[in-house]
Every structure is written in C-alpha cells, then in structure tokens.
Write a structure and sequence with these properties.
There is one protein chain. Helix 7 packs across helix 10 and helix 8 packs across helix 10. It contains ten helices and no strands. The chain has a single domain, classed as Hypothetical protein af1432 (Orthogonal Bundle). It is mainly α. The model has no long low-confidence stretch (mean pLDDT 98). The longest helix is centred in the middle third of the chain and has 23 residues. The protein binds fe (ii) ion. The site of fe (ii) ion has 5 residues, from helix 2.
Length: 188
C-alpha cells in the first residue's frame, strides 16, 4: 500500500476543492475510529476512507461518471482489486459506473458507506454551531431526525452502521470524536 503522503498527493492531483478534501479527511478519520473499535486494520480502513472518492474532482460535473475513473487511478497507484471493489461499493445503489443494482455485503463496505455519509451530517452541524467543540450525540441525533437538515445526507446509509453491530448512538459518538480529533485540519 502507498503511504498516506502519497495518497494525499494522488488526491490533490485529481481534486482541487478544499471542501472535497475535508470530506476525505473526515472519512479517513471515521474509518480509522471504526477499525479501532471493531478490531480491524486501521491503516487499511483509513486509506479506504481517504481515497474512496479519488475521482470525484474529475467526474462531479457529470455525477454518472463518478467511480468510472477510480479503478484505473487506484490500479496505477498499486492498489489491488479488493481495495478497488471496496471503494466502488460505496457507490452501490447510485446511478453511476454501473453500480445501481449492486448491494453491499461485507463489513468493510458497510463501514465505508456509513462513515463517508455521516461526515455530511457532522460537518453541517459543526458549521451550524460554528464549532466541533462540545458536540454531543443528542444534538447530532436531532439533526439526523430532522430530514430538512442537510437534506442530501442519506439517513438510511448512515443506518448501515447497524450491520457493523453498532447502534446509531454508538456510531454517532464514534463519528463525532473522530472528526473532533482532526478539527483543525477540517477548518474548525
Ligand atoms: Fe464520499
């Protein structure tokens, strides 16, 4: 596997928006925290979080193209098909890269999907309260239930945390703490 520094360079090559980079860093942090909690490979899960949207910067103008470029980019960087397929699994159900009819089955796939999705909720709530400090699960859960808040965040994907044996509260705590640990890097 490539180093984190090399992974960041790869991201920068295809992604120019700071807000996208922040999403990748938050996904990395939550994946690391989940791996730690579940006794999985932290470095590997973090790398999945970091690189899951590697082609977003060059495909977002036509979101149907999202994840069509990622396999080649990741293969060229030395990642194997297992890593690449796990990256693709976060697009299952979406109308892109022929992934619409596919369903997640593996623990690491559920983890990547719920981790990368919950970043949207945590970040939007942090922006609203202008800080990550003191964020608690009770407040975040209210925002989870308020479908008008961060309406683009798919709650049903966040609930895939249950497939990891974590209830929503447990997962939200993990997500909050993980993002708080990198608060400076993500603009707070
Ligand atoms: Fe993402």
């Amino acid at each position: 596997m490539i180093t984190r520094e090399e992974a960041l360079k790869l991201l920068e090559k295809y992604n120019q928006d700071r807000s996208d980079m922040i999403h990748y860093l938050e996904s990395e942090a939550i994946m690391g925290a989940l791996a730690k909690r579940l006794g999985e490979d932290e470095a590997y899960w973090k790398m999945l979080g970091l690189l899951h949207d590697v082609d977003w910067g060059i495909t977002k103008e036509d979101s149907h193209q999202h994840l069509t470029k990622a396999p080649e980019i990741l293969r060229s960087a030395g990642f194997d098909e297992k890593f690449i397929n796990t990256v693709l699994s976060h697009g299952y159900g979406w109308d892109c890269a022929g992934l619409k009819e596919k369903c997640r089955t593996e623990k690491v796939e559920y983890a990547l999907a719920c981790a990368e999705t919950v970043t949207g909720l945590v970040h939007a709530y942090a922006l609203m309260r202008k800080s990550l400090d003191g964020m608690e699960v009770s407040g975040l859960k209210k925002k989870f239930k308020d479908k008008k808040f961060a309406a683009g965040v798919h709650r049903e994907i966040i609930l895939e945390c249950e497939k990891l044996g974590l209830n929503l509260d447990e997962f939200l705590v993990i997500a909050i703490r993980a993002v708080q640990e990198i608060s400076k890097e993500v603009g707070f």
